[in-house]
Amino acid sequence: MEEKIVAMPRIGDKAPEFTAVTTQGPINFPKDYSGKWVILFSHPADFTPVCTSEFMTFATMEKQFEEANCKLVGLSVDGLFSHIAWLRTIKEKIQYKGMKDVEVKFPLIEDITMEVAKKYGMMQPGESATKAVRAVFFIDPKGIIRAIIYYPLSLGRNFDELYRALIAMQTADAFNVAMPADWRPGDEVIVPPAGSCGVAKERMDGKDKDVTCHDWFFCTKKIDKDTVLKTVLKK
Ligand code: BEZ
Asked: What are the pLDDT digits (tens) for 153-175?
């Protein structure tokens, strides 16, 4: 039988819809998460070491993501009972890098049919025909995919970077700015490009005292850390 080719979702697309069974009960995605950011991520297999280190790290940071209005949803092509057994083992037996007694409270989707994994391009046969790669989809409160990151089976993700990317996108939206390389709250942000020769000249003439221009097309301004945190984390 001919394999149906499904186009991978891209940045700017609506998050593909699905219903699924999870370790926290059934979900209707992304409808159940309307008004919230979601990180939908896949992992290759339950009871594997890299995935275990990732789940312990993500579960430990869940409150931090929650405070940024972001829910976590995991997926692998294992079944529900395997998921339950693995999460129980993590809680009861695994100590790693100072983390212990870690309870994974976010939903983990069972996807034995690979239906969801295929819909989201998480199956990459060159890497593995039977396991999902480590994909991360950032989906905004309107259900739009805003960023996608992929890692191979052999490399665990950097969860500080996932958090940094989330806060950076939320800040970019809130202040209509863009974020330079390695941006962190408190660093300068990039103001939208000059839309006319007049604005380009004004910027280079230093008319706006809050804006620093390295050249007419590359101008930055300060947004202090407290302002970012108050706006994004409501702190
Ligand atoms: C792991 O999570 O350790 C793993 C999973 C699949 C392939 C290789 C490593």
From this structure: 999 999 999 999 999 999 999 99
State the pTM of this model: 0.95
Instruction: Please identify every residue annotated as catalytic.
Output: 51
CA of 167 to the centre of ligand 1 (A): 29
Buried/exposed 192-228: b ≥16 CB within 10 Å, e otherwise: eebeeeebbebbeeeeeeeeebeeeeebbeebeeeeb
* Ordered alpha helix ranges (H), the chain: 49-60, 62-67, 80-93, 115-119, 159-175, 197-204, 225-233
Alpha-carbon span 167 to 38, nearest angstrom: 13
Ligand 1 pocket residues where CB is under 6 Å: 44-45, 48-51, 131, 153-154
Q: What is the pLDDT of residues 71-84, one digit of tens each?
A: 999 999 999 999 99
- On whether both 145 and 79 belong to a single domain, the answer is yes
Is residue 9 within 8 Å of residue 145, measured between CB atoms?
yes
Which CATH number do you get for residue 40? Answer: 3.40.30.10
Range of the domain at 22: 18-157
Residue with token string 């409160």: 141
